């Protein structure tokens, strides 16, 4: 009996050990790819196998990074872009959820606007950029609007679908207690759709980056999008690559944070 | 005058594809404190009738009176427990059982402690802060019953409350529910497709026939079964003869259909 028990715990230990080893190998290969990519980039640029003017090199990007860090312009522009993105995706998600709630509230309205939603969803929202800039002026508001508008329709559609899919028997329970439609929404529809709303938040982070960067391309006065356009215009591709890498890192961090938030909120 | 009067109810469901008449010519009177069972094969409109009595569906024809008042506009006089527990998974048991009081703005220290007391009586002590998914099927069903009773409805309706439970749990719950309702002197309607359960729990058994749903026959339960607990009723000598009688009727309904 006791023998068997120690045996099982030993086997379990071995199993866990094998898991850790596998995990380490995965990490190892990931690091190898990372190093291989950047070192071959660096070498081929130095040996002029690729055009260093066009493709720059990691060391040049690093130097520029330090330089821009010291003169404060990187942080300032990153701050601008980050603020716009955060406001954009929160606004997009909130607005989409509110619209979804309106559609749920009035089935008639939802039937009427259905084809318009389909059209708006199919339309490339960034094409609205020039109009937004003229309407709201070339500054924060129009860029934030870009970040929001790109995600609002798809959020509306996804969240509305989830509102509709809530088991009607939950509403029946509430109605037996004489609940109003507003109470039904607050007690059943919204909390039941909470996981969906959080997961659209995750998708919207990515969408808002697109909207904001395109917005900054167009306004071209501040932000990482401006860095990219400016670098392109003066043929400083090191600046373009620097901006790209910074965006990649920050967008990933933001995504992870929202994922963390999701895990925390939906753990129950 | 009777406590609950069901007067000539007809109901037809309309969908794009068809019009299904679920109920036809349903008339029934229920006295205060009475325990009634609706028995019948599935699809004969039992759930529909409960929904109509609860005021959730407007019947295409007929009226329901509770104490001589039409049920439209009555609030929290009728408690209705659906076929599954439908406890809100994101709410704790306490939040779940207080939802009715909260919605009708009756939530105060007194009603809250009454509801929690009832939870204790049902053998659910110390689980107030747990979520429904942490409970077993029988416990969830009891919690759902507490939620329904918390607003102190005059009439309680239970739609196949024990059908998803294992046999032992079901027998125990039958006794518990029967005891609780007796102690409150509640009027109750139970929907079931279990003949034994109908006999053991009720004063009268209403047998429904399908397509369209109609009242086929009403059976008065013998006096000696009414006054004992469901478990004891199942073992009483009077049980099997009435069981045979209802079983034959049900059987004739099925063969009549074929
Ligand atoms: N929402 C609905 N729309 C259309 N038909 C329905 C609906 N609900 C029930 N029915 C039909 O009405 C009949 C009675 O259903 P129901 O009241 O659920 O019976 P029971 O509870 O006795 O099984 C069935 O034929 C069913 O298909
Ligand atoms: Mg049913």
Automatic annotation (TrEMBL), chain A:
Keywords: Cell membrane, Membrane, Transmembrane, Transmembrane helix, Transport
Main subcellular location: membrane
Subcellular location: Cell membrane
Gene Ontology annotations for the cellular component aspect, listed alphabetically: plasma membrane
ABC transmembrane type-1 domain location: 74-258
Membrane disposition: Multi-pass membrane protein
PROSITE patterns: ABC_TM1
Entries under Pfam families matching the protein: BPD_transp_1
Membrane-traversing stretches: 25-43, 85-105, 117-137, 143-163, 207-229, 235-258
SUPFAM superfamilies the UniProt entry points to: MetI-like
Entry-linked InterPro entries: MetI-like, MetI-like_sf
GO terms for biological process, alphabetical: transmembrane transport
Similarity comment: Belongs to the binding-protein-dependent transport system permease family.
Stated name of the protein: NitT/TauT family transport system permease protein
Origin species: Neobacillus niacini
Automatic annotation (TrEMBL), chain B:
Keyword Zinc: no
A Pfam family annotated for this UniProt entry: ABC_tran
Span of domain ABC transporter: 4-235
MF (Gene Ontology): ATP binding; ATP hydrolysis activity
Protein name: NitT/TauT family transport system ATP-binding protein
Source organism per UniProt: Neobacillus niacini
Top-level taxon in the UniProt lineage: Bacteria
Keyword line: ATP-binding, Nucleotide-binding, Transport
InterPro entries attached to this UniProt entry: AAA+_ATPase, ABC_transporter-like_ATP-bd, ABC_transporter-like_CS, ABC_transporter_ATP-bind, P-loop_NTPase
Coiled-coil boundaries: none
């Amino acid at each position: 009996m006791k023998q068997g028990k120690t045996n099982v715990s030993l086997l379990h230990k071995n199993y866990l050990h094998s898991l850790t080893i596998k995990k380490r190998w995965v990490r190892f290969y990931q690091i190898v790819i990372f190093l291989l990519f950047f070192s071959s980039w660096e070498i081929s640029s130095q040996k002029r196998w690729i055009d260093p003017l066009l493709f720059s090199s990691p060391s040049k990007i690093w130097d520029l990074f330090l330089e821009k860090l010291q003169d404060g312009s990187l942080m300032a522009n990153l701050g601008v872009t980050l603020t716009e993105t955060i406001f954009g995706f929160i606004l997009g998600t909130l607005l989409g959820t509110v619209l979804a709630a309106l559609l749920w509230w009035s089935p008639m309205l939802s039937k009427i606007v259905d084809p318009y939603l389909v059209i708006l969803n199919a339309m490339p929202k960034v094409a609205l950029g020039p109009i937004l800039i003229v309407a709201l002026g070339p500054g924060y508001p129009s860029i934030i609007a870009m970040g929001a508008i790109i995600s609002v329709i798809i959020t509306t559609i996804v969240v509305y679908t989830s509102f509709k899919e809530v088991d009607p028997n939950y509403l029946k329970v509430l109605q037996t207690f004489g609940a109003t439609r507003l109470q039904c929404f607050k007690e059943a529809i919204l909390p039941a759709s909470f996981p969906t709303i959080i997961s659209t938040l995750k998708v919207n982070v990515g969408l808002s980056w697109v909207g904001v960067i395109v917005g900054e391309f167009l306004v071209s006065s501040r932000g990482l999008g401006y860095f990219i356009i400016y670098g392109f215009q003066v043929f400083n591709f090191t600046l373009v690559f620097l901006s790209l890498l910074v965006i990649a890192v920050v967008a990933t961090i933001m995504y992870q944070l929202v994922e963390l938030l999701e895990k925390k909120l939906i753990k129950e | 005058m009777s406590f609950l009067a069901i007067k000539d109810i007809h109901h037809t469901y309309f969908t794009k594809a068809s019009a299904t008449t679920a109920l036809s010519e349903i008339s029934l009177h229920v006295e205060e404190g009475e325990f009634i069972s609706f028995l019948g094969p599935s699809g004969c409109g039992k759930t529909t009738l409960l929904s109509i009595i609860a005021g959730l569906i407007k019947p295409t024809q007929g009226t329901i009176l509770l104490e001589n008042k039409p049920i439209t506009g009555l609030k929290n006089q009728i408690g209705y427990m659906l076929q599954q527990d439908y406890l809100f998974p994101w709410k704790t048991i306490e939040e779940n059982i207080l939802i009715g009081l909260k919605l009708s703005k009756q939530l105060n220290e007194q009603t809250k402690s009454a509801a929690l007391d009832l939870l204790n009586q049902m053998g659910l002590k110390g689980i107030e802060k747990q979520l429904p998914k942490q409970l077993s099927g029988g416990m969830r069903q009891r919690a759902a019953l507490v939620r329904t009773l918390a607003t102190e409805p005059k009439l309680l309706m239970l739609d196949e409350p024990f059908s998803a439970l294992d046999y032992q749990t079901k027998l125990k719950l039958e006794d518990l529910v029967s005891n609780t309702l007796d102690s409150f002197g509640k009027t109750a309607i139970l929907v079931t497709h279990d003949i034994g359960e109908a006999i053991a729990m009720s004063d009268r058994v209403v047998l429904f026939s399908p397509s369209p749903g109609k009242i086929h026959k009403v059976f008065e339960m013998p006096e000696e079964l009414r006054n004992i607990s469901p478990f004891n009723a199942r073992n009483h000598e009077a049980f099997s003869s009435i069981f045979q009688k209802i079983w034959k009727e049900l059987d004739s309904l099925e063969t009549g259909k074929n």
